[in-house]
């Protein structure tokens, strides 16, 4: 098995408090892995260390055998580790089609104004079309992002991350805040992500975790608490007590 992403003895302290405490995590190629943990377990801190938003106090982050611990965020994206965009990073005044065209044209190294990328480059138009269909956004492709339903905006976050051609996709709580009626569509999209993209899902919602993941890593108090396949984690009394004791 090839390891795509690995952390080695990762530690992040805020003063004396260790939000990430000696985490050694491996994500294998093609994985459908989830990182779960109660509120305050250190999930966000760990993502920030993986994406370069935070620098660790000690330890390292390895992507496809290369140490990326000190690389800035944009260089990590270029190397293929991409976190889902956050709603507040989306351009409210653009449409989903325009948003994706920007990212896709940037990926293809096409500079120039938006209308040029959209109107003149067949590759951009074709890739946008694929992404819009894949993420069930084709019916709203020309509406302003600001006017989209919340669930659709979350779909656009994932689509925008995928437009960066990630090898390692960090799916950051894709159903958080999504109304009940819009969740299934996101489950379906997440389950249909291309097999060649390795996925680490950071999630609090157990329905999605057990619906999607094959492997689960449980974080508690900044440290890895349990790891295993979905069934063993779901039936682990220690894990249950951590969640029930929340
Ligand atoms: P989760 O995403 O699992 O809810 P976080 O990574 O947000 O957990 O937080 C883990 C712990 O680290 C929490 O106790 C939080 O208060 C603390 N923490 C996170 N960021 C900071 C910071 N910048 N300064 C101090 N403490 C922080």
Automatic annotation (TrEMBL):
Listed transmembrane segments: none
Stored CDD domains: ABC_Mj1267_LivG_branched (cd03219)
One Gene Ontology cellular component annotation held by this UniProt entry: plasma membrane
Highest taxon in the source lineage: Bacteria
Residue ranges of domain ABC transporter in the record: 5-246
UniProt entry tagged with the keyword Membrane: yes
Keywords (A to Z) from UniProt: ATP-binding, Cell membrane, Membrane, Nucleotide-binding, Transport
Presence of the UniProt keyword Transport in the record: yes
GO molecular function: ATP binding; ATP hydrolysis activity
Signal peptide: none
Protein name, as recorded: ABC transporter ATP-binding protein
Organism: Piscinibacter aquaticus
Species classification: Bacteria, Pseudomonadati, Pseudomonadota, Betaproteobacteria, Burkholderiales
